[in-house]
Amino acid sequence: RRPPDTEIDWKAYMQEVEGFANGTLDYTQLKGDTGPLVYPAGFVYIFLGLYHATGRGSDIRLAQYLFAGLYLLNLLLVFRIYCRTNKVPPYVFFFMCCASYRIHSIFVLRLFNDPVAMVILFFAINLFLEERWSWGCLLFSLAVSVKMNILLFAPGLLYLLLQRFGLLGCIPKLCICALLQVVLGLPFLLVNPVGYLMRSFDLGRQFQFKWTVNWRFLPEDVFQNRVFHAALLLAHLTGLGLFALHRWHSSKENILTLLKDPAQRKPASPHLTVNNILWQGGQQGDSWIIFILFSSNFLGVCCSRSLHYQFYVWYFHTLPYLLWCTPTTKLAHMPKVLLLGVIELCWNTYPSTVCSSLSLHICHGLILLQLWYGTAPTPVSHTPPLNRKPTAISKKAQ
């Protein structure tokens, strides 16, 4: 038997896409029991498919089976990312698979759109690791079109594109991301462009205090205060700037050299060889890419105006890497596992309490300190050599 609130969001999703199925193209007219549709167009198309597959949303059991398959696919994509880095001890994967009641609920019980977006995102990261940057950007943009939390990875991705291709080289990749958003939203943009943009990309939307997981210890008037929101945005931008300058960019050259073509930059090391450049596809290069993307997202989560229970999936599968990406002694393994357990406990406390929200911030702060003071993966050089083989790699990256 399903809990009584299991179907709330699923029914709202089905009501929102039902209007589109009936021919409504004015985005402001797509609504459900929980309010107006506030997700971009990719969400509409994907859940419209689920709407038809489940008999207009009536067969919830079938939908749960489909989301169970999505959960297994998500684990496969995440495991493939972790295997490329070889940094997280194998026993940690048990906690990732079996020890999170909240994640299982988000995927299989509540059928939220957040896991759909994250599965597409992890697929995109796998493509980045394979140097398939154009296809990766396409899927990254598709994930954004399902839910905008994927934009928390965007600063890290922009840094990687600039480092890999330079300013002129990354413009086509950014155009891929923008073009897909236009194509997906075109039916709605042609009818009511302002309504579509205001509803699907509303960055100023207010959150309800009763659902917050991370700011329960604040008075509600402070939680809703725009000054508080501006302070969090400033903290987020400051954190990104500091990480970009001191953690992501370890070259002695000015960070503005990222705007140059990679062939015009100075080598990162005077002993740079062809073998070193070819190593960019190995574990060190993979670790560096994942470190930037995961830390970019984590900074956004830490500075979020509110975290609701389904938002746990935004960063749950990245936590083991964030904890173990820096060199670790055997004695430090147990505190890191304990940290994962405390975070899980905070997310399973319903409703959230002053203690649970404060504990969550303390855990986030400890992870940030480790990311800041630990030894980050070494960046790899993308300076094209004069040899034929690295040229082939460069073509593959395009």
Automatic annotation (TrEMBL):
Keywords: Endoplasmic reticulum, Glycosyltransferase, Membrane, Transferase, Transmembrane, Transmembrane helix
Gene that produces this protein: Alg3
Membrane association type: Multi-pass membrane protein
Natural source organism: Ptilonorhynchus violaceus (Satin bowerbird)
Function, in words: Dol-P-Man:Man(5)GlcNAc(2)-PP-Dol alpha-1,3-mannosyltransferase that operates in the biosynthetic pathway of dolichol-linked oligosaccharides, the glycan precursors employed in protein asparagine (N)-glycosylation. The assembly of dolichol-linked oligosaccharides begins on the cytosolic side of the endoplasmic reticulum membrane and finishes in its lumen. The sequential addition of sugars to dolichol pyrophosphate produces dolichol-linked oligosaccharides containing fourteen sugars, including two GlcNAcs, nine mannoses and three glucoses.
An example Gene Ontology molecular-function term: dol-P-Man:Man(5)GlcNAc(2)-PP-Dol alpha-1,3-mannosyltransferase activity
Top-level taxon of origin: Eukaryota
Protein name: Dol-P-Man:Man(5)GlcNAc(2)-PP-Dol alpha-1,3-mannosyltransferase
Main localization category: endoplasmic reticulum
Membrane-spanning segments: 37-53, 65-82, 111-129, 135-162, 174-198
Subcellular localization, as worded in the UniProt entry: Endoplasmic reticulum membrane
InterPro entries: Glycosyltransferase_ALG3 (IPR007873)
EC number: 2.4.1.258
Catalytic activity: an alpha-D-Man-(1->2)-alpha-D-Man-(1->2)-alpha-D-Man-(1->3)-[alpha-D-Man-(1->6)]-beta-D-Man-(1->4)-beta-D-GlcNAc-(1->4)-alpha-D-GlcNAc-diphospho-di-trans,poly-cis-dolichol + a di-trans,poly-cis-dolichyl beta-D-mannosyl phosphate = an alpha-D-Man-(1->2)-alpha-D-Man-(1->2)-alpha-D-Man-(1->3)-[alpha-D-Man-(1->3)-alpha-D-Man-(1->6)]-beta-D-Man-(1->4)-beta-D-GlcNAc-(1->4)-alpha-D-GlcNAc-diphospho-di-trans,poly-cis-dolichol + a di-trans,poly-cis-dolichyl phosphate + H(+)
Pathway annotation: Protein modification; protein glycosylation
GO cellular component: endoplasmic reticulum membrane
